[in-house]
Amino acid sequence: MTGRAIVIGASAGGVQALSRILPALPADFAVPVLVVAHIPPRKENALVQLFAAKCALRVKEAEDKEMLAGGTVYFAPSDYHLMVEPGGSVALSSEEPVNHSRPAIDVLFETAADAFGPNLAGVVLTGANHDGARGLKAIGDAGGIAMVEDPDTAEVGTMPAAALAACPAARPMSFEQIIHQLQGWAIS
Amino acid sequence: MTDAIEDIEIELLLEAVYQHYHYDFRDYARASLKRRLLHARKQLGYDSISALQADVLHDRTMLPRLLNFLTVQVSEMFRDPSYFRALREKVIPHLRTYASLKVWVAGCSNGEELYSLSILFREEGLAHMTLFYATDINPQALKAAETGVYSLDQIRLFTENHQKSGGLTSLSDYYTADYGRAVFDKSLRNQVVFSDHSLVTDAVFGEMHLISCRNVLIYFNRDLQNRAVGLFRDSLARRGFLGLGSKESLRFTQHADAFEEFVPSEKIYQRALG
Ligand SMILES: C[S@@+](CC[C@H](N)C(=O)[O-])C[C@H]1O[C@@H](n2cnc3c(N)ncnc32)[C@H](O)[C@@H]1O
Questions:
Q1: Is A11 marked active-site?
Q2: pLDDT at A2 over 70
Q3: Taking CB atoms and an 8 Å limit, are B32 and A77 in contact across chains?
Q4: Do B262 and B215 belong to one domain?
Q5: Residue of A63, A81, A85 with shortest CB distance to B30
Q6: Ligand 1 contact, B118 CB (< 6 A)
Q7: What is the pLDDT of residues A6-62, one digit of tens each?
Q8: In CATH, what number is assigned to the domain containing residue A86?
Q9: Cα angle vertex B63, ends B32, B218, to 5°?
Q10: pLDDT digits (tens, 9 = 90+) for B225-247
Q11: B21, B36, B135, B136: residue to mutate for ligand 1 pocket, most atoms within 8 A of CB
Protein backbone atom coordinates (compact mmCIF):
# COMPACT_ATOMS: atom_id res chain seq x y z
CA MET A 1 0.00 0.00 0.00
CA THR A 2 1.51 3.32 -1.07
CA GLY A 3 0.20 6.70 0.00
CA ARG A 4 -0.34 7.97 3.50
CA ALA A 5 -3.13 8.78 5.88
CA ILE A 6 -3.91 10.43 9.20
CA VAL A 7 -6.36 8.93 11.68
CA ILE A 8 -7.83 10.83 14.60
CA GLY A 9 -9.91 9.59 17.54
CA ALA A 10 -11.87 11.82 19.91
CA SER A 11 -14.49 11.27 22.57
CA ALA A 12 -15.86 13.51 25.37
CA GLY A 13 -14.83 17.10 24.57
CA GLY A 14 -13.85 15.99 21.10
CA VAL A 15 -15.78 18.53 19.08
CA GLN A 16 -13.80 21.38 20.61
CA ALA A 17 -10.48 19.59 20.22
CA LEU A 18 -11.24 18.76 16.58
CA SER A 19 -12.22 22.40 16.07
CA ARG A 20 -8.68 23.36 16.99
CA ILE A 21 -7.01 20.90 14.63
CA LEU A 22 -9.09 20.31 11.50
CA PRO A 23 -9.67 23.97 10.50
CA ALA A 24 -5.91 24.57 10.84
CA LEU A 25 -5.14 22.18 7.99
CA PRO A 26 -4.80 23.91 4.59
CA ALA A 27 -6.91 23.10 1.51
CA ASP A 28 -3.90 21.63 -0.30
CA PHE A 29 -3.18 19.19 2.53
CA ALA A 30 -2.32 16.13 0.46
CA VAL A 31 -3.12 13.39 2.96
CA PRO A 32 -6.59 11.96 3.72
CA VAL A 33 -7.75 12.44 7.32
CA LEU A 34 -10.10 9.88 8.91
CA VAL A 35 -11.93 10.70 12.11
CA VAL A 36 -13.82 8.61 14.63
CA ALA A 37 -15.64 10.77 17.17
CA HIS A 38 -17.93 9.20 19.73
CA ILE A 39 -21.26 10.98 19.48
CA PRO A 40 -24.80 9.79 20.21
CA PRO A 41 -26.24 7.75 17.31
CA ARG A 42 -28.00 9.97 14.80
CA LYS A 43 -28.96 9.37 11.26
CA GLU A 44 -26.92 12.07 9.58
CA ASN A 45 -23.57 12.74 11.10
CA ALA A 46 -23.99 16.29 12.38
CA LEU A 47 -20.22 16.69 12.65
CA VAL A 48 -19.90 16.67 8.87
CA GLN A 49 -22.00 19.82 8.50
CA LEU A 50 -20.35 21.49 11.44
CA PHE A 51 -16.82 20.94 10.14
CA ALA A 52 -17.60 21.47 6.48
CA ALA A 53 -18.44 25.03 7.44
CA LYS A 54 -15.21 25.48 9.41
CA CYS A 55 -12.59 23.71 7.30
CA ALA A 56 -10.63 24.51 4.19
CA LEU A 57 -10.51 20.78 3.49
CA ARG A 58 -13.40 18.88 1.93
CA VAL A 59 -15.38 17.23 4.74
CA LYS A 60 -17.66 14.25 4.21
CA GLU A 61 -19.12 11.16 5.78
CA ALA A 62 -17.08 8.11 4.79
CA GLU A 63 -18.88 5.89 2.26
CA ASP A 64 -18.41 2.16 2.03
CA LYS A 65 -15.94 1.15 -0.76
CA GLU A 66 -14.83 4.67 -1.72
CA MET A 67 -11.11 5.26 -2.36
CA LEU A 68 -9.41 7.60 0.07
CA ALA A 69 -8.26 10.86 -1.46
CA GLY A 70 -6.05 13.69 -0.22
CA GLY A 71 -7.52 17.02 0.80
CA THR A 72 -10.45 15.30 2.45
CA VAL A 73 -11.66 14.68 6.00
CA TYR A 74 -13.75 11.52 6.39
CA PHE A 75 -16.01 11.12 9.40
CA ALA A 76 -17.27 7.72 10.51
CA PRO A 77 -21.06 7.56 10.17
CA SER A 78 -22.78 7.13 13.51
CA ASP A 79 -23.51 3.54 14.46
CA TYR A 80 -20.97 2.06 11.99
CA HIS A 81 -17.35 1.07 12.42
CA LEU A 82 -15.02 2.82 10.01
CA MET A 83 -12.17 0.70 8.61
CA VAL A 84 -9.48 0.99 5.97
CA GLU A 85 -9.07 -1.85 3.47
CA PRO A 86 -5.56 -3.02 2.53
CA GLY A 87 -5.92 -1.30 -0.87
CA GLY A 88 -6.67 2.09 0.71
CA SER A 89 -10.45 2.18 0.38
CA VAL A 90 -13.09 2.73 3.06
CA ALA A 91 -15.05 -0.12 4.62
CA LEU A 92 -17.97 0.31 6.98
CA SER A 93 -19.37 -2.37 9.26
CA SER A 94 -22.21 -2.74 11.71
CA GLU A 95 -20.62 -5.56 13.68
CA GLU A 96 -20.63 -5.49 17.49
CA PRO A 97 -19.46 -2.39 19.37
CA VAL A 98 -15.82 -2.40 20.54
CA ASN A 99 -15.03 -0.72 23.88
CA HIS A 100 -18.80 -0.13 24.06
CA SER A 101 -18.48 2.09 21.02
CA ARG A 102 -19.54 1.94 17.40
CA PRO A 103 -17.70 3.49 15.72
CA ALA A 104 -14.63 2.54 17.75
CA ILE A 105 -11.29 4.32 17.48
CA ASP A 106 -9.36 1.06 17.91
CA VAL A 107 -11.07 -0.47 14.87
CA LEU A 108 -10.11 2.46 12.63
CA PHE A 109 -6.56 2.68 13.97
CA GLU A 110 -5.80 -1.05 13.77
CA THR A 111 -7.12 -1.50 10.25
CA ALA A 112 -5.38 1.69 9.09
CA ALA A 113 -2.10 0.52 10.65
CA ASP A 114 -2.52 -2.72 8.73
CA ALA A 115 -3.16 -0.89 5.46
CA PHE A 116 -0.60 1.93 5.72
CA GLY A 117 2.12 0.53 8.00
CA PRO A 118 4.72 3.22 8.67
CA ASN A 119 2.93 5.70 6.38
CA LEU A 120 0.30 6.53 8.97
CA ALA A 121 -0.05 9.12 11.71
CA GLY A 122 -2.51 8.60 14.54
CA VAL A 123 -3.80 11.17 17.01
CA VAL A 124 -5.69 10.42 20.24
CA LEU A 125 -7.59 13.38 21.66
CA THR A 126 -9.69 14.07 24.75
CA GLY A 127 -12.07 11.42 26.11
CA ALA A 128 -13.36 9.61 29.16
CA ASN A 129 -12.67 6.01 28.13
CA HIS A 130 -9.80 3.85 26.83
CA ASP A 131 -10.73 3.58 23.18
CA GLY A 132 -7.80 4.26 20.86
CA ALA A 133 -5.09 2.96 23.19
CA ARG A 134 -4.73 -0.43 21.50
CA GLY A 135 -5.07 1.16 18.11
CA LEU A 136 -2.36 3.74 18.76
CA LYS A 137 -0.06 0.98 19.94
CA ALA A 138 -0.72 -0.86 16.67
CA ILE A 139 0.23 2.29 14.76
CA GLY A 140 3.42 2.67 16.78
CA ASP A 141 4.29 -1.01 16.34
CA ALA A 142 3.87 -0.70 12.57
CA GLY A 143 6.35 2.19 12.52
CA GLY A 144 3.80 4.97 12.15
CA ILE A 145 3.68 8.25 14.06
CA ALA A 146 1.75 8.23 17.33
CA MET A 147 0.51 11.51 18.81
CA VAL A 148 -1.54 12.18 21.92
CA GLU A 149 -3.17 15.32 23.25
CA ASP A 150 -1.53 16.22 26.57
CA PRO A 151 -3.78 14.61 29.22
CA ASP A 152 -3.02 17.42 31.67
CA THR A 153 -4.52 20.08 29.43
CA ALA A 154 -7.11 17.94 27.63
CA GLU A 155 -10.78 18.52 28.44
CA VAL A 156 -10.92 14.92 29.71
CA GLY A 157 -7.55 13.27 30.24
CA THR A 158 -8.50 9.60 30.61
CA MET A 159 -8.35 8.58 26.97
CA PRO A 160 -5.07 10.34 26.14
CA ALA A 161 -3.49 8.99 29.35
CA ALA A 162 -4.53 5.44 28.42
CA ALA A 163 -3.06 5.91 24.94
CA LEU A 164 0.24 7.15 26.35
CA ALA A 165 0.41 4.20 28.73
CA ALA A 166 -0.26 1.69 25.95
CA CYS A 167 1.97 3.19 23.30
CA PRO A 168 5.57 3.90 24.34
CA ALA A 169 6.29 5.66 21.04
CA ALA A 170 3.68 8.36 21.72
CA ARG A 171 4.35 11.77 23.24
CA PRO A 172 1.91 14.19 24.91
CA MET A 173 1.51 17.26 22.74
CA SER A 174 -0.30 20.59 22.56
CA PHE A 175 -2.67 21.38 19.68
CA GLU A 176 -0.01 23.60 18.15
CA GLN A 177 2.54 20.81 18.25
CA ILE A 178 0.10 18.33 16.75
CA ILE A 179 -0.81 20.68 13.89
CA HIS A 180 2.82 21.51 13.28
CA GLN A 181 3.90 17.89 13.16
CA LEU A 182 0.99 16.85 10.90
CA GLN A 183 1.79 19.62 8.45
CA GLY A 184 5.49 18.88 8.43
CA TRP A 185 4.85 15.17 7.99
CA ALA A 186 2.37 15.67 5.15
CA ILE A 187 4.88 17.53 3.00
CA SER A 188 7.97 15.56 4.01
CA MET B 1 7.07 -9.70 10.06
CA THR B 2 4.42 -11.66 11.98
CA ASP B 3 1.77 -9.57 10.26
CA ALA B 4 2.74 -10.76 6.81
CA ILE B 5 2.70 -14.37 8.00
CA GLU B 6 -0.76 -13.88 9.47
CA ASP B 7 -2.02 -12.54 6.15
CA ILE B 8 -0.69 -15.64 4.41
CA GLU B 9 -2.33 -17.88 6.98
CA ILE B 10 -5.66 -16.11 6.52
CA GLU B 11 -5.40 -16.53 2.75
CA LEU B 12 -4.73 -20.25 3.21
CA LEU B 13 -7.54 -20.75 5.70
CA LEU B 14 -10.07 -19.10 3.40
CA GLU B 15 -8.83 -21.25 0.52
CA ALA B 16 -9.16 -24.38 2.69
CA VAL B 17 -12.70 -23.49 3.76
CA TYR B 18 -13.61 -22.89 0.13
CA GLN B 19 -12.06 -26.07 -1.27
CA HIS B 20 -13.30 -28.37 1.44
CA TYR B 21 -16.67 -26.86 2.41
CA HIS B 22 -17.50 -24.62 -0.60
CA TYR B 23 -18.06 -21.57 1.58
CA ASP B 24 -16.33 -18.78 -0.29
CA PHE B 25 -15.12 -15.90 1.87
CA ARG B 26 -12.11 -15.12 -0.32
CA ASP B 27 -13.61 -11.91 -1.69
CA TYR B 28 -15.16 -10.55 1.47
CA ALA B 29 -14.01 -7.09 2.57
CA ARG B 30 -10.72 -8.07 4.12
CA ALA B 31 -10.20 -5.63 7.00
CA SER B 32 -13.35 -6.68 8.83
CA LEU B 33 -12.92 -10.37 7.99
CA LYS B 34 -9.37 -10.32 9.32
CA ARG B 35 -10.48 -8.78 12.60
CA ARG B 36 -13.13 -11.43 13.01
CA LEU B 37 -10.73 -14.26 12.17
CA LEU B 38 -8.18 -13.04 14.69
CA HIS B 39 -11.00 -12.83 17.21
CA ALA B 40 -12.01 -16.42 16.34
CA ARG B 41 -8.45 -17.63 16.81
CA LYS B 42 -8.36 -16.15 20.29
CA GLN B 43 -11.86 -17.19 21.34
CA LEU B 44 -11.45 -20.74 20.08
CA GLY B 45 -8.10 -20.97 21.86
CA TYR B 46 -5.56 -21.36 19.05
CA ASP B 47 -2.01 -20.04 18.91
CA SER B 48 -2.13 -19.45 15.19
CA ILE B 49 -4.54 -19.31 12.27
CA SER B 50 -2.68 -22.31 10.81
CA ALA B 51 -3.51 -24.41 13.87
CA LEU B 52 -7.12 -23.35 13.61
CA GLN B 53 -7.08 -24.27 9.93
CA ALA B 54 -5.88 -27.79 10.66
CA ASP B 55 -8.82 -28.42 12.98
CA VAL B 56 -11.32 -26.80 10.65
CA LEU B 57 -10.21 -29.17 7.89
CA HIS B 58 -10.19 -32.33 9.98
CA ASP B 59 -13.14 -31.73 12.29
CA ARG B 60 -16.47 -31.00 10.62
CA THR B 61 -17.99 -29.71 13.86
CA MET B 62 -15.59 -26.76 13.73
CA LEU B 63 -17.19 -25.31 10.60
CA PRO B 64 -20.42 -23.94 12.12
CA ARG B 65 -18.43 -22.44 14.96
CA LEU B 66 -16.10 -20.73 12.51
CA LEU B 67 -19.06 -19.52 10.42
CA ASN B 68 -20.38 -17.69 13.46
CA PHE B 69 -17.21 -15.62 13.44
CA LEU B 70 -16.93 -15.24 9.66
CA THR B 71 -20.47 -13.90 9.32
CA VAL B 72 -21.89 -10.91 11.18
CA GLN B 73 -25.24 -11.59 12.85
CA VAL B 74 -26.12 -8.14 14.20
CA SER B 75 -29.74 -7.30 13.38
CA GLU B 76 -33.03 -5.97 14.80
CA MET B 77 -36.69 -5.93 13.86
CA PHE B 78 -37.64 -2.87 11.80
CA ARG B 79 -33.98 -1.82 11.82
CA ASP B 80 -33.86 1.71 10.39
CA PRO B 81 -37.60 2.35 10.77
CA SER B 82 -37.57 4.94 7.97
CA TYR B 83 -36.70 2.16 5.50
CA PHE B 84 -39.83 0.21 6.45
CA ARG B 85 -41.88 3.39 6.38
CA ALA B 86 -40.71 4.05 2.83
CA LEU B 87 -41.59 0.49 1.82
CA ARG B 88 -45.03 0.95 3.35
CA GLU B 89 -45.76 4.34 1.85
CA LYS B 90 -43.99 4.21 -1.50
CA VAL B 91 -43.39 0.60 -2.55
CA ILE B 92 -46.51 -1.17 -1.25
CA PRO B 93 -48.88 0.91 -3.45
CA HIS B 94 -47.06 -0.50 -6.51
CA LEU B 95 -47.04 -4.04 -5.15
CA ARG B 96 -50.80 -3.88 -4.63
CA THR B 97 -51.34 -3.92 -8.38
CA TYR B 98 -50.10 -7.54 -8.68
CA ALA B 99 -52.20 -10.67 -8.22
CA SER B 100 -49.44 -12.45 -6.33
CA LEU B 101 -46.07 -11.42 -4.96
CA LYS B 102 -42.65 -12.89 -4.29
CA VAL B 103 -40.37 -11.24 -1.76
CA TRP B 104 -36.77 -12.30 -1.14
CA VAL B 105 -34.98 -11.45 2.11
CA ALA B 106 -31.35 -12.16 1.21
CA GLY B 107 -29.05 -12.53 4.21
CA CYS B 108 -31.94 -12.86 6.67
CA SER B 109 -29.74 -13.64 9.70
CA ASN B 110 -31.90 -14.71 12.67
CA GLY B 111 -35.08 -13.61 10.91
CA GLU B 112 -35.63 -10.14 12.36
CA GLU B 113 -35.97 -8.54 8.93
CA LEU B 114 -38.21 -11.33 7.65
CA TYR B 115 -40.68 -11.04 10.55
CA SER B 116 -40.68 -7.26 10.13
CA LEU B 117 -41.71 -7.61 6.49
CA SER B 118 -44.18 -10.36 7.24
CA ILE B 119 -45.90 -8.10 9.81
CA LEU B 120 -45.79 -5.11 7.47
CA PHE B 121 -47.36 -7.12 4.62
CA ARG B 122 -50.06 -8.41 6.95
CA GLU B 123 -50.83 -4.90 8.15
CA GLU B 124 -51.13 -3.78 4.55
CA GLY B 125 -53.40 -6.70 3.64
CA LEU B 126 -50.92 -8.31 1.24
CA ALA B 127 -49.81 -11.29 3.33
CA HIS B 128 -52.25 -13.80 1.81
CA MET B 129 -50.92 -13.22 -1.70
CA THR B 130 -47.21 -13.10 -0.84
CA LEU B 131 -44.60 -15.81 -0.82
CA PHE B 132 -41.41 -14.94 1.10
CA TYR B 133 -38.00 -16.45 0.55
CA ALA B 134 -35.61 -16.04 3.48
CA THR B 135 -32.04 -17.07 2.68
CA ASP B 136 -28.70 -17.08 4.44
CA ILE B 137 -25.47 -19.09 4.45
CA ASN B 138 -25.27 -19.52 8.21
CA PRO B 139 -27.24 -22.67 9.16
CA GLN B 140 -27.52 -21.64 12.81
CA ALA B 141 -28.99 -18.27 11.84
CA LEU B 142 -31.44 -19.93 9.43
CA LYS B 143 -32.59 -22.26 12.17
CA ALA B 144 -33.10 -19.31 14.53
CA ALA B 145 -35.06 -17.54 11.79
CA GLU B 146 -37.30 -20.57 11.42
CA THR B 147 -37.88 -20.60 15.17
CA GLY B 148 -38.70 -16.89 15.54
CA VAL B 149 -37.81 -16.59 19.21
CA TYR B 150 -36.07 -13.47 20.52
CA SER B 151 -34.98 -12.31 23.93
CA LEU B 152 -37.55 -10.15 25.68
CA ASP B 153 -34.80 -7.60 26.33
CA GLN B 154 -34.85 -6.75 22.65
CA ILE B 155 -38.60 -6.33 22.40
CA ARG B 156 -38.61 -2.78 23.66
CA LEU B 157 -36.35 -1.65 20.81
CA PHE B 158 -38.27 -3.77 18.28
CA THR B 159 -41.57 -2.23 19.46
CA GLU B 160 -40.20 1.28 19.25
CA ASN B 161 -38.84 0.62 15.75
CA HIS B 162 -42.16 -0.87 14.64
CA GLN B 163 -44.05 2.20 15.84
CA LYS B 164 -41.60 4.54 14.11
CA SER B 165 -41.97 2.58 10.90
CA GLY B 166 -45.65 3.52 10.80
CA GLY B 167 -46.89 0.23 12.26
CA LEU B 168 -50.67 -0.07 12.13
CA THR B 169 -50.93 -2.69 14.88
CA SER B 170 -49.16 -3.44 18.12
CA LEU B 171 -46.09 -5.67 17.97
CA SER B 172 -47.44 -7.54 21.00
CA ASP B 173 -50.21 -8.88 18.74
CA TYR B 174 -47.61 -11.12 17.14
CA TYR B 175 -45.76 -12.79 19.99
CA THR B 176 -46.32 -14.45 23.32
CA ALA B 177 -43.93 -13.89 26.20
CA ASP B 178 -42.48 -17.01 27.72
CA TYR B 179 -39.63 -17.27 30.27
CA GLY B 180 -37.84 -14.12 29.13
CA ARG B 181 -38.38 -14.93 25.49
CA ALA B 182 -40.75 -13.55 22.87
CA VAL B 183 -42.11 -16.37 20.73
CA PHE B 184 -43.39 -15.03 17.43
CA ASP B 185 -46.60 -16.32 15.93
CA LYS B 186 -46.16 -19.31 13.58
CA SER B 187 -48.65 -17.84 11.15
CA LEU B 188 -46.08 -15.14 10.29
CA ARG B 189 -44.06 -17.82 8.54
CA ASN B 190 -46.91 -19.73 6.90
CA GLN B 191 -45.81 -18.52 3.50
CA VAL B 192 -42.07 -18.43 4.01
CA VAL B 193 -39.48 -20.66 2.38
CA PHE B 194 -36.26 -20.75 4.42
CA SER B 195 -33.28 -21.78 2.39
CA ASP B 196 -29.51 -22.04 2.41
CA HIS B 197 -28.44 -19.79 -0.45
CA SER B 198 -25.18 -17.92 -1.02
CA LEU B 199 -25.02 -14.68 -2.95
CA VAL B 200 -21.44 -15.64 -3.79
CA THR B 201 -21.82 -19.14 -5.19
CA ASP B 202 -25.53 -19.79 -5.89
CA ALA B 203 -27.83 -18.82 -8.77
CA VAL B 204 -31.20 -17.22 -9.50
CA PHE B 205 -34.13 -19.25 -8.12
CA GLY B 206 -37.24 -17.23 -8.90
CA GLU B 207 -38.72 -14.00 -10.15
CA MET B 208 -39.09 -11.47 -7.33
CA HIS B 209 -41.14 -8.31 -6.94
CA LEU B 210 -39.11 -7.10 -3.99
CA ILE B 211 -35.63 -8.07 -2.82
CA SER B 212 -34.50 -6.78 0.55
CA CYS B 213 -30.80 -7.34 1.10
CA ARG B 214 -29.60 -5.19 3.95
CA ASN B 215 -26.19 -5.04 5.57
CA VAL B 216 -24.80 -7.96 3.60
CA LEU B 217 -23.12 -6.27 0.62
CA ILE B 218 -21.15 -4.10 3.03
CA TYR B 219 -19.10 -7.20 3.93
CA PHE B 220 -18.22 -7.95 0.29
CA ASN B 221 -15.46 -6.43 -1.84
CA ARG B 222 -16.38 -4.69 -5.09
CA ASP B 223 -16.10 -7.81 -7.26
CA LEU B 224 -18.41 -9.73 -5.02
CA GLN B 225 -20.85 -6.85 -4.84
CA ASN B 226 -20.97 -6.91 -8.63
CA ARG B 227 -21.78 -10.60 -8.57
CA ALA B 228 -24.53 -10.24 -5.98
CA VAL B 229 -26.13 -7.20 -7.58
CA GLY B 230 -26.04 -8.98 -10.97
CA LEU B 231 -27.93 -11.80 -9.31
CA PHE B 232 -30.53 -9.34 -8.00
CA ARG B 233 -30.90 -7.76 -11.43
CA ASP B 234 -31.54 -11.18 -12.97
CA SER B 235 -33.94 -12.17 -10.18
CA LEU B 236 -36.20 -9.12 -10.34
CA ALA B 237 -39.48 -8.98 -12.22
CA ARG B 238 -39.99 -6.09 -14.61
CA ARG B 239 -39.92 -2.90 -12.51
CA GLY B 240 -39.25 -4.91 -9.35
CA PHE B 241 -37.73 -3.28 -6.25
CA LEU B 242 -34.40 -3.70 -4.46
CA GLY B 243 -33.78 -2.38 -0.94
CA LEU B 244 -30.28 -2.14 0.58
CA GLY B 245 -28.86 -1.18 3.98
CA SER B 246 -28.67 2.48 4.91
CA LYS B 247 -24.92 2.73 4.19
CA GLU B 248 -24.95 0.58 1.07
CA SER B 249 -25.46 1.76 -2.50
CA LEU B 250 -25.12 0.69 -6.12
CA ARG B 251 -22.69 3.53 -6.78
CA PHE B 252 -19.60 1.38 -6.92
CA THR B 253 -21.12 -1.56 -8.82
CA GLN B 254 -21.15 -2.29 -12.55
CA HIS B 255 -24.91 -2.66 -12.57
CA ALA B 256 -25.95 0.82 -11.47
CA ASP B 257 -27.51 1.40 -14.92
CA ALA B 258 -29.86 -1.54 -14.51
CA PHE B 259 -31.58 0.26 -11.64
CA GLU B 260 -33.23 3.60 -10.97
CA GLU B 261 -33.21 5.30 -7.60
CA PHE B 262 -36.70 4.97 -6.19
CA VAL B 263 -36.32 6.29 -2.63
CA PRO B 264 -32.70 7.52 -2.64
CA SER B 265 -32.56 8.37 1.08
CA GLU B 266 -33.58 4.79 1.99
CA LYS B 267 -31.49 3.05 -0.68
CA ILE B 268 -34.55 1.64 -2.41
CA TYR B 269 -34.06 1.02 -6.13
CA GLN B 270 -36.33 -0.04 -8.96
CA ARG B 271 -35.30 -2.24 -11.85
CA ALA B 272 -34.95 -0.03 -14.93
CA LEU B 273 -36.74 -0.87 -18.18
CA GLY B 274 -34.68 -2.51 -20.90
C1 LIG C 1 -25.49 -8.21 9.43
S2 LIG C 1 -26.55 -9.55 8.94
C3 LIG C 1 -27.90 -8.67 8.21
C4 LIG C 1 -29.23 -9.06 8.79
C5 LIG C 1 -30.41 -8.25 8.26
N6 LIG C 1 -30.51 -8.33 6.83
C7 LIG C 1 -30.30 -6.81 8.71
O8 LIG C 1 -30.04 -5.92 7.90
O9 LIG C 1 -30.46 -6.56 9.90
C10 LIG C 1 -25.67 -10.25 7.55
C11 LIG C 1 -26.15 -11.63 7.15
O12 LIG C 1 -25.64 -11.96 5.85
C13 LIG C 1 -25.33 -13.32 5.84
N14 LIG C 1 -24.41 -13.61 4.73
C15 LIG C 1 -23.07 -13.45 4.70
N16 LIG C 1 -22.57 -13.86 3.53
C17 LIG C 1 -23.63 -14.25 2.78
C18 LIG C 1 -23.74 -14.78 1.45
N19 LIG C 1 -22.67 -14.99 0.69
N20 LIG C 1 -24.99 -15.08 0.99
C21 LIG C 1 -26.08 -14.88 1.77
N22 LIG C 1 -26.02 -14.39 3.02
C23 LIG C 1 -24.81 -14.08 3.53
C24 LIG C 1 -24.75 -13.56 7.22
O25 LIG C 1 -24.76 -14.94 7.56
C26 LIG C 1 -25.67 -12.71 8.08
O27 LIG C 1 -26.75 -13.47 8.55
A1: yes
A2: no
A3: no
A4: yes
A5: A85
A6: no
A7: 999 999 999 999 999 999 999 999 999 999 999 776 656 789 999 999 999 999 999
A8: 3.40.50.180
A9: 25
A10: 999 999 999 999 999 999 999 99
A11: B136
pTM over 0.80: yes
Count of domains observed in chain B: 2
> Is B252 in the A-facing interface, judged by CB distances under 8 Å?
yes
B140 lines ligand 1 (CB under 6 A): no
Q: Assess whether B93 and B36 both reside in one domain.
A: no
> How many residues can be counted in chain B?
274
Mean pLDDT of A61-71: 96
Dump pLDDT digits (tens) for A147-174. Answer: 999 999 999 999 999 999 999 999 999 9
Q: Is any ligand 1 atom within 6 A of the Cβ of residue B137?
A: yes
- Cβ of B36 closer than 6 Å to ligand 1, yes or no, is no
**In 10 A of CB B5, how many CB atoms?**
12
Is the Cβ pair B249, A63 closer than 8 Å? Answer: yes
Q: Is B220 domain-assigned?
A: yes
Which residue in B has a C-alpha nearest to residue A78's C-alpha?
B247
| One domain for residues B85 and B48 | no
Phi, psi of B139, rounded to the nearest 5 degrees:
-60, -35
CA angle, corner B243, sides to B239 and B244, nearest 5? 140
Nearest to A37 by CA among A136, A114, A127, A116: A127
Residue B52 is assigned to a structural domain of this protein: yes
Q: Do the domain assignments include residue B15? A: yes
Is A131 considered catalytic here?
yes
- Residue B136, φ and ψ in degrees, nearest 5: -165, 165
